[in-house]
Amino acid sequence: MFDKKFGKRYFDDVEINLKGIIQITTLTILFLALIAISASAQSGESSIFRAERTSVLIFAVIFSIVILVYTRMAKQGKKLFVRKIAGLDAVEEAVGRATEMGKPVLFIPGISEIDEIETIAGISILGRVAKITAQYETPLIVPVRYPMVLAAGQEVVEQAYTEAGKRDTYNKDMVRYVAGEQFAYTATVNGMMMRDRPAANIYMGAFFAESLLLAETGNAAGSIQIAGTARPEQLPFFIAACDYTLMGEELYAASSYLSHEPLLLGGLKGQDFIKIILVALMIVGIVLSTVGHGEAFKALFKSV
Amino acid sequence: MKTTLPVIVAFLSGLIMVVGFFLNPEKSFLGNVEEEVLRWGTIVGGFTLLLGVVSLVRVNSRTVSQKKQGWIFNLITLISVFAMAIPSMIPLSSKSAIGSVLYSIIPASWGGLFGTGPDSIYDWMFNYLESPMMATMFAMLAFYIASAAYRAFRARNTEATLLLLTAVLVMLWRIPMGEAFLRLFGDNVPQYINSFVMNGVNMAVQRGIIIGAALGAASMSLRIMLGIERTYMGKG
Q1: Separation of alpha carbons A300 and A277, rounded Å
Q2: How far apart (Å, rounded) are the C-alpha atoms in residues A53 and A24?
Q3: Cα dihedral sign, B134-B138-B139-B140
Q4: Chain A hits for B149, Cβ within 8 Å
Q5: H or E stretch including A156?
Q6: What is the largest CA-CA distance in chain A?
Q7: Quick check: A124 contacting B, CB < 8 Å?
């Protein structure tokens, strides 16, 4: 701890982080001051600022600062440990299996529109998967439910094939529009699974009642299956029918994890730090509730 | 430019939504700008519908022309697309230019078959073909749940046995006969299962996952807004 080398590096980091903290904090204070002035200029109900959302604003500001600080730390080359996610390590293995078997990889980026963050996470992972299929020259099939997702998916896959130096093997119909109706989409994809027998099925995004219909059919077709969703109600179905399942936050961490980019990993570490703060707050809340002072503590976090 | 412009658009759109969330729409200069941005999204989405139809027709017609395995289903898909779309786009009366030409060929009484109103071809196909097929797919879920549950609940090890026992208790509590059976062990047993398993263990785990997912979503949104995460554009 008192090692000279360690000490120097420690103080270097502090200096670097302080700069970022000062910048962000100044901006935040200015923003808050602006809101406060506007709020005080008008009385009670007619305030420009929704006072009932103050706790959300404070949390959002703290969250942003932590994420930015960790991103800055990653940018400066600080080593960040990220735990292993078995489901993501299995992606390359699944594509390798498909290559050996000469069968396609089926990727489903959920069934929601592009404005859902889960779909964006799915599209990000699609880029990584497409890069691997491009390197191995393995066929890739991406059925989508919405035209906006189709356009985004085609762009991402084309870029991945170009970056892998396999632009000539890219086919626009790898990403294809299937149907706008939930169960029409499911029926078509199930048909693809049974006819084309993909060696690997990857489900990443927002899923609803069709999750088990898809995953069970894939299981019956003998495909290796990797799923990821942030919907807790669909997770048991994927866990029962798939080989690997990414749960909740792991879906959002996937693109950063697969990219191994320090900048993206910094965001993940910031997220973990916030989680520690939340756990600490929960413990305080439990203790205060147990001793009969929980209501006052809960009131601090009350929002709409 | 191809990367910078989308990042700027993403940042501005995100910022508008975040700032709009904290401001009173009736008092702030931004007004209902969040709703306006969402409306723009819907309009842009409408334009991309054509891309979807082109993709659908191209992929399916190629499969039909090459007579690949299951090509008959692709043919049915193509026929269905046009059978639903064309009659719904035909004018209902001879008032428009297209209508006047059309109704000089076919009887005017056929007008009710077109458009999307009650008793039109579109309406008939939706009510008597599409809806029952959707309901059938949904109903099949029960059998899929049974097959997945059979695999998940096999008592292969301690964890699977615990899962099986918990599932049996919850399923018993959910059916009247099971509830009556559980009451044999004490009047409060069904309520105890509900409060301990469903509102206790289950809810705690679900909330843990939801909190983690919410943080992940917020972190990803921030990364996208700041242009750190550009993987959704195929970059990085």
Answers
A1: 15
A2: 21
A3: positive
A4: 240
A5: helix A147-163
A6: 70
A7: yes
Residue listed under structure tokens 């949904």: B138
**DSSP per-residue string spanning A182-218:** HHHHHHHHHHHHHHH--SEEEEES---THHHHHHHHH
Of A47, A267, A275, which has the smallest distance from its Cβ to B228's Cβ? A267
Question: By C-alpha distance, which of A215, A226, A196 is closest to A96?
Answer: A226
Q: How far apart are CA B121 and CA B126, in angstroms?
A: 8
Question: Residue with structure tokens 């896959």?
Answer: A157
Backbone angles phi, psi at B183, to 5 degrees: -65, -20
**Of the candidates A52, A37, A41, which has an alpha carbon nearest to the alpha carbon of residue A299?**
A52
**Interface with B, mutate which of A61, A129, A183 (most B CBs under 10 A):** A183
- Report strand pairing: A105-108 vs A200-204: parallel
Tokens of A254: 């996937």
Contact B216 A124 (CB under 8 A): no
pLDDT tens-digit series, residues B144-172: 999 999 888 887 889 889 989 998 988 88
The reply to whether B223 touches chain A by the CB within 8 Å rule is yes
Burial-class residue A52 by CB neighbours within 10 Å (0-12, 13-18, 19+).
exposed
Take residue A151 and report the two structure tokens written for it. 């356009």
Taking residue A284's Cβ as centre, other Cβ atoms within 10 Å add up to: 11
Tell me if chain B has a CB within 8 Å of the CB of A213: yes
What was the ipTM of the complex prediction? 0.89
* Angstroms from A240 CA to nearest CA on chain B: 5
User: What is the identity of the amino acid at B236?
Assistant: G
First to last CA, chain A: 46
**Given this model, what pLDDT does residue B236 score?**
61
In whole angstroms, what is the distance from residue B19 CA to residue A235 CA? 33
What is the DSSP pairing of strand A244-247 with strand A224-229?
Answer: parallel
Contact across the interface for A147 and B147, Cβ inside 8 Å? no
Q: How far is CA B222 from the centre of its chain?
A: 25
Does residue B127 belong to the interface with chain A, where contact is any CB pair within 8 Å? Answer: no
Q: Is the minimum CB–CB distance between A184 and chain B shorter than 8 Å? A: yes
pTM: 0.87
Contact (CB<8Å) B234/A157: yes
Q: Give the pLDDT confidence of B191-205 residue by residue, as tens digits.
A: 888 889 999 999 999
φ, ψ of residue B92 to 5 degrees: the values are -80, -20
Give the residue from A67, A121, A127 showing the smallest Cα distance to A229: A121
